[in-house]
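Full entry
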Amino acid sequence: MKKLILLVIPLGAALLVTAAACSSTSTSTTGTTAAAGGSSSTAASSTGGATMPTTTAGSSPGSAGSTPSGNIPVYGKTDLNITTAVGQEFAIELESNPSTGFSWTYSQVGGALELVDQTKATSSGPPGSGGTQRFTFKAKVSGASYLDFVYARSNPGPDDTKLRYDVSID
């Protein structure tokens, strides 16, 4: 007798869907991860006779304002100068590992930007693997603004990573 087990796990802006067919002698697993926009990609790897999905979706941090298939521009750790227009959205995506107690926080100098979304996504690796934090902003008025990001534990220290993004709004 075979049983079908369906597991749906929310992963930040993505959704992991896994199905397993079980019998008394074997188990096979398939799965996919879909981004919130509905796109997905899956690469399969073999572990112990069962096929396990390894999936990635979206752009990687530090991809110089990359724009994956019709989405907003995404900036990374080295893209510190951003130019946008009033009413436009953009995202800053930074590598993080919340399992270590560290996370990114930000403050804004100037009120030209509005935070519209903040998400965390974990990698598909073993427990304790890192992930990303994404901050999505919308330009409200023309001018300039600065976004100061700090990667720290709850009690910041002198060795914490600090980034300043210079945002020009046309």
